[in-house]
Design brief:
288 residues; 19-stranded antiparallel sheet; mainly beta; 3 helices; 19 strands; extended
């Protein structure tokens, strides 16, 4: 952990420790006025014992916002604050990380040498270290044409396995949740069971336009038992900026929209008995 990361987390967990920390805390919290800018800059330079750090402090006129940033001797940003949002950047060998915070949570994202995310951790922003628990973890791996991600939503007790295209478009998402073990008792408590909840499939054309997205829902108490399926299909005819659309429920067509141009189209509802109802729109207005 670099000095600036340490300084950043020191502020998060212990807003006021001593006079020096109180000075940094005030700067980060936005208690900066134009009159105090030079004085604060001088004190910060003395505190950090460096003439190579570039400090930028100013308050925009007619706005109740303040901005604070730190740059290293190479002119690279290492810390930034605007209003209630904070951002810290750190280099670690060939990699780097960004740490950001707001009133509700703070997060750290690590990147590889190609500036692609490899790890993300999110904490709740509480008053103490003990209360600031991790609520989300995510990791990315890069392999050929695909990007793979595993995500743990600790707050909502959900897990995700995701496959992306090289353009970071989701192709396949599997969602799990945790339920109580039916054999768990008060005398013999057992760990919760990870169970399949939902699968999502996506497809795209060569222009990265969505062609279809399908959701399959599963019974939480009966692993692998499908209970419902829905699918959206999009077609790009060139007649309109809008795509033609079809909605399927458990494999059956239920609704469609077909465009003649941007303003003229037909909506069709399909019923289980094979009947259907069409509604025409001309210039965006319903005509039947």
């Amino acid at each position: 952990m670099s000095f600036f990361e340490a300084l950043f987390f020191l502020y998060l967990f212990f807003p006021v420790i001593n006079e020096k920390q109180f000075l940094i805390s005030n700067a980060m919290k936005g208690n900066i006025t134009l009159e105090k800018t030079e004085e604060l800059k001088t004190k910060l330079e003395k505190f950090l014992n460096s003439d190579e750090i570039d400090f930028g402090l100013y308050e925009e006129p007619k706005k109740n916002h303040s901005e604070f940033y730190l740059k290293n001797s190479f002119g690279k940003l290492v810390f930034f604050k605007f209003d209630k949002e904070l951002l810290s950047v750190s280099n670690e060998l060939e990699n780097f990380s960004c740490t950001s915070v707001n009133e509700e949570q703070f997060s750290m994202v690590k990147y590889n040498a190609d500036y692609k995310p490899v790890e993300k951790i999110v904490w709740e922003n509480k008053n103490t270290v003990a209360d600031s628990k991790i609520i989300l973890k995510e990791n990315w791996k890069y392999s050929g044409e695909y990007i793979f991600s595993t995500k743990e939503d600790l707050k909502n007790k959900k897990n995700y396995e995701i496959r992306y295209s090289k353009d970071f478009l989701p192709l396949y998402v599997v969602e799990y949740c945790y339920i109580q073990n039916p054999e768990s008792t008060e005398k013999n408590p057992l760990p919760e069971i990870k169970t399949l909840v939902k699968k999502n499939f996506f497809s795209y054309d060569k222009q990265n336009r969505i062609l279809s997205d399908e959701e399959i829902f599963y019974d939480k108490k009966k692993e692998g038992k499908e209970i419902y399926r829905k699918k959206n299909v999009y077609s790009y005819t060139g007649k309109s900026e809008n795509a033609d659309f079809e909605f399927y429920e458990n494999g059956n067509l239920r609704f469609s929209i077909n465009y003649e141009n941007d303003d003229d189209f037909v909506e069709t509802v399909y019923f289980p008995d094979g009947k259907f109802m069409e509604t025409k729109f001309i210039n965006g207005e319903k005509v039947n």
